Amino acid sequence: MGESKTLPTYFCRNCENPLALGEDLISKKFVGASGPAFMFSHAMNVVVGPKIGRKLLTGSYVVADVMCSKCGEKLGWKYVETFNLKQRYKEGMFVIEKLKLTKKY
């Protein structure tokens, strides 16, 4: 029998509110305001702010800031819409800054 790999759960570093599951981690190659950031296909226990236009490293997007539902810490953003077909895969995804996260197994 093969061993199953235990994936971490990601939590808010400020208040330990669970935010994302390891199985929902898409990429660790994103950059946020505070440095490295992770892209997740789903996030939980977050508040999604209003949609705003924002110019990011890879182009212009409609995004919404994402905050922790427990402590209100700004965590990153959610991609709402892109105007570049090559970037369309990002729509609906969450980017959370690494410095805002902690993980547990």
TrEMBL record:
InterPro entries per UniProt:
Yippee, Yippee/Mis18/Cereblon, Yippee_fam
- Member of which family? Belongs to the yippee family.
Q: What is this protein called?
A: Protein yippee-like
What high-level taxonomic lineage is stated for the organism? Eukaryota, Viridiplantae, Streptophyta, Embryophyta, Tracheophyta
**Residues spanning the signal sequence:** none
Does the entry feature the keyword Cell membrane, yes or no? no
Per the record, a Pfam family? Yippee-Mis18
Q: Does the keyword Zinc apply?
A: yes
